[in-house]
Design goal:
Elements (H helix, E strand, L loop, with lengths): L7 E5 L6 H11 L3 E3 L3 E2 L14 E2 L2 H9 L3 E7 L2 E6 H9 L3 E5 L2 H10 L4 E6 L3 H11 L4 H15 L7 E4 L3 H17 L3
Parallel strand pairs: 1-7, 1-8, 2-7, 3-4, 8-9
Antiparallel strand pairs: 3-6, 5-6
Helix pairs in contact: 1-7, 5-6
Length: 191
């Protein structure tokens, strides 16, 4: 007896909490799970590659995709759009493969409504001060953008009860192990 269709796992948390790092470690350690690549209108960072980290779109291109109903979820955050294209997600699921979405809170709420069997995991910082320090240290944005992200993080932390699981990213190895434990448990779940 095998699961004909894969599961959707959603990992959400404030900007700077370490979602990308946790996902990177997790993908090396867990078989049969694929990362959904989001589309975004934000500027590409030096280390990022088209089609690997994101699909970089103009605002007009993104708007056309919204109009054509090509996203499972999408959200506007800090002046830029982010969205999960349906096509590749549905392909993986129909082949019995699990899909991991690393997305913002707005998107996670949309997934919860549209995909009721999705497993939602909230990745939290050990403290707000630790999050502020991480955002400043990564030095990828202006102080103004960091302030916007911190304000948004305070709001996001209030919505943790919408999720099935909470993982605190105090120790990277422990956070990764906890997320892997959730994936393994959900794969074994009967109903």
């Amino acid at each position: 007896m095998s699961n004909a269709s894969g599961k959707v796992f959603v990992l959400t948390g404030p900007s700077g909490v370490g979602k990308g790092t946790v996902v990177s470690e997790l993908l090396q350690k867990v078989d049969n799970i694929y990362l959904s690549i989001s589309a975004t209108t934000r500027q590409r960072r030096e280390s990022e590659k088209e089609g690997i980290h994101y699909f970089f779109k103009t605002k007009d291109e993104f708007q056309r995709m919204i109009t054509a109903n090509e996203f499972l979820e999408y959200a506007e955050f800090a002046g830029d759009y982010y969205g999960s294209p349906k096509f590749s997600i549905n392909n993986y699921l129909s082949c019995g493969k699990d899909v991991l979405l690393e997305i913002e809170l707005q998107g996670a709420k949309q997934i919860k409504e549209k995909c009721t069997d999705a497993i939602l995991i909230f990745l939290a910082p050990p403290s707000f001060e630790a999050l502020e320090e991480r955002l400043i240290k990564r030095n990828t944005e202006s102080i103004e953008k960091v302030k916007i992200r911190l304000k948004k993080a305070k709001e996001e932390m209030k919505e943790v009860n919408l999720f099935h699981y909470l993982v605190v990213n105090d120790s990277l190895n422990e956070a990764v192990d906890n997320v892997i434990g959730i994936i393994r448990a959900e794969r074994c779940r009967i109903k």
